[in-house]
Structure to design on (1156 residues):
């Protein structure tokens, strides 16, 4: 990273997650998967863990199509005492069972500081959701489990804000943070959020941490997901997290943006060539920064 | 609330905090202060509780100038283990001491669900900060203390999002929610945030809850605070929350937007006539909706 | 204006419209009306000039209720050859006739550089619309007519951008610019735009030009207009521009945000006391800056 | 385009630029170049035409590296009478000379309706800049020259707004519109604008018009341009427009975001493989929609 350039001043609060030398790059291991290294890693699964059948079927199918990590929400936003709050511990156990069945690593969101140790018992990676990016008590509790953290950008967080939250996790002794761009809130109404692809490029330019893309939440509509996934590969992302469901129109949450098994399979087959090209260009990608 | 008007559909998730009849209006009591009733209530104090002297001096001065509630942060964002995290329990005790000294009610932020019962022992009102507006575990814990909740709008939350979080608190059995507009994040750079005064008008039009304005965080610069405070009175807000510090340039946080004692006194003297006029127009204000 | 304060650097491109001394303030005259002086000036009228009857009736009624300037669009956005494009010259003549009838000054929008001389023959003030704030050919043509210019802030323009366009007009030899805040585009959906009241305060703090508020376009719904108008008075604006129509539900454009005659009359009666208070506080308002 | 899907309602004002059948796609010809067809087309050149030497040198170099169209501003925003306003007619003649020298087609911005016929005499494509997207008098004048129009998205325009301006051009009898995504204004400060790559995907999904990407204005920093260009290829864009200058640090405008000749050459060499892959996937890209 060249010296100078006033635009970097905004990252001064996150010294430990910036690159210190041109080739400095953190690789995060979860189970037998490494994120931020050579491989482009796809994380896939349903928004919510709903039933054993739904989860096992999805895990088998996304693994067959090339996913390396299974996602699935066991804790959902408790926006009221009456809302579906996720299966909780039961959901965590199903995720672990799906891991045993398929060999996929497991990532799931932790929503309350008190739940962090329990979630860490079952999951390989703890996800901090967009709404929680500045929930410092939660960041601390999650960091202290020692599990890798998948940190989603807040809906209105700048790139600098995201790095500051990453810095916070690192400062609690946990260097294994994966950053995730998932769209920011703007005036645009044709998509659910505005996917900030340049944010990915900036993060890869300035930070040593792996960066993945969440095209499902960015787009909000499944027809846009494959093109955004391709663009994330081209922009230099280290991986993807996408929502997949056996029957999206009956999903308990986020059905509109979930891919079907067929849609996911087609996307993964299509992505293979793009990932191969990305691998071939990797040294070029590095020197861009 | 009259039937019809498609723009109200976005509030469908917050049925219990909407007006059900034209005159339905919640008044929240904290100590001997009522918010949402006849009186325009000013909450004032430092961003952070720093020292006993700083807090007592501020409490005496803001009370003398007409404030009814003392604000002061005992818990600050723990953005790293090295950052100032507030005085914690010590800060809470100082707030209670200031209350005993001045008769002011006390509001302070709770940042972690686990702290809610302790904070509720010392404070009359629990504040949920902007970053926590969608921290559902925290909303639940705060709601269940039974204390009134001062709920700040998230930096990128819509009015509908804010009401949904209020609904969440109410659904946990706590009807005493005070809404607070504190500016939203936009592209504008001349102010820290963009103060959404029409958001206050909409909230007063559609919701039964009291609404207060935070011109300090909206503006980010103290010279703008008095004019924004006046405009909030005119827009129909039920009160204000403003930052005041004995020596803003040496404040441990948010000094640029904190008023001096003199500045606060001048503002309160100036506001008196505007509040009187507001009281005279109150029936007119009601019929606007 | 005191020296220092890095936030003012963004206004460096607009040196001629900033205050050079604490009391420097431009008063713009249009016919017998002065804007930016002691009086709070209300501009009112329909979005579009539709018929002679509609315009004369509106002019008489708004004049009776206290408006000093009549607004009305003779040229509308030609978004297609098939859309209503305004009555053009015919509309300008009707505006002049309404002026003769009522004594009101007249403001109307000029949309094309080629039309500027013709519009200047009939109107006392030329309006530059939001979409045209950075249409430099139009700014030049309008400036060179010598008529005062009512310059509306672009939907996504910063305060600094607005001042730069004002500077452009001034640099073409026309010092008589009135700035207008009319809401900016954000993610919020409860209002048409987000009324940036702090933008008004900043403009009054930093610039020597008069500043008026357009609550109709900011709100997009007539029920919000009176409260926003009051708040603009309190914030220190020099006047208002509001849409009024004999029968808003049948207006050819912007009906939802237009006040009825009764609504306008009630608002003006209500505003009188607030304007009086503003006049009493004027010296206080000045010293805020 | 399948029937249904409420999100398409927002495009109702632009019926003539939507797809009417799955394979309906407009190809725009400019000189011997077609945009929107099989080939991925790169437009390159300086922000402003400065000198004959600067332009000829740039034209030769970008042509050698694979560009098909030369860009260069002859008219610049006349933000004041003292600012550099472009070389005007002199600049247009230099562009024509560069075309004769290299065989590149030429695109340049028209800023005033009165200039449209003159610009059309020299340029193959007329550019409508971001600030002018809703300058309807200019859209009409440009449309009526019969030249293809490169229409840049306004800084705060939605995708639907952009299509409405395209519809306006088409309704004046000119079907040859090329859409250009160039970033929108958000709160993010790490980039000049936020490149809305999903906007490209939506436009390709819903509209029959070619869509190109402007990574230079989106990013505002040259180091980001190659990665954004790659991502635009992957997202399905039909081409690029990028700024290139012999000596960016001495450019009269936009130097920070201009590529050097070497930088442009490296980017084009890198892009070749991505464009080849895009061509191979083209049938797949089409079926995404």
């Amino acid at each position: 990273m060249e010296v100078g350039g006033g635009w970097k001043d905004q990252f001064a609060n996150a010294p430990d997650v910036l690159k210190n030398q041109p080739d400095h790059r953190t690789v995060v291991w979860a189970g037998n998967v490494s994120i931020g290294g050579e491989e482009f890693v796809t994380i896939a699964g349903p928004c919510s863990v709903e039933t054993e059948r739904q989860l096992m079927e999805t895990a088998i199918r996304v693994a067959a199509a090339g996913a390396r990590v299974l996602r699935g929400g066991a804790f959902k936003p408790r926006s009221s005492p009456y809302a579906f709050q996720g299966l909780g511990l039961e959901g965590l156990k199903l995720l672990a069972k799906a891991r045993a069945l398929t060999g996929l690593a497991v990532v799931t969101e932790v929503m309350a500081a008190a739940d962090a140790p329990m979630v860490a018992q079952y999951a390989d990676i703890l996800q901090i959701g967009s709404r929680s990016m500045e929930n410092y008590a939660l960041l601390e509790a999650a960091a202290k489990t020692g599990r890798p953290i998948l940190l989603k950008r807040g809906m209105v967080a700048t790139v600098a804000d995201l790095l500051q939250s990453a810095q916070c996790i690192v400062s609690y002794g946990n260097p294994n943070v994966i950053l995730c761009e998932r769209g920011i809130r703007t005036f645009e109404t044709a998509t659910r959020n505005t996917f900030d692809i340049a944010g990915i490029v900036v993060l890869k330019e300035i930070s040593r941490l792996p960066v993945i893309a969440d095209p499902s939440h960015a787009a909000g509509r499944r027809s846009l997901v494959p093109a955004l996934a391709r663009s994330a590969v081209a922009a230099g992302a280290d991986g993807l997290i996408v929502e997949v469901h056996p029957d999206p129109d009956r999903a308990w949450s986020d059905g509109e943006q979930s891919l079907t098994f067929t849609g996911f399979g087609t996307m993964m087959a299509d992505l293979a060539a793009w990932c191969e090209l990305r691998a071939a260009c990797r040294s070029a990608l590095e020197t861009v920064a």
Remarks:
- The interface with chain B takes residues 13, 77-82, 111-114, 131-132, 134-138, 140, 154-156, 164-165, 167-168, 171-172, 185 of chain A (CB under 8 Å).
- The longest helix of chain A spans residues 261-280.
- The longest strand of chain A covers residues 41-45.
- The two ends of chain A are 7 Å apart (CA to CA).
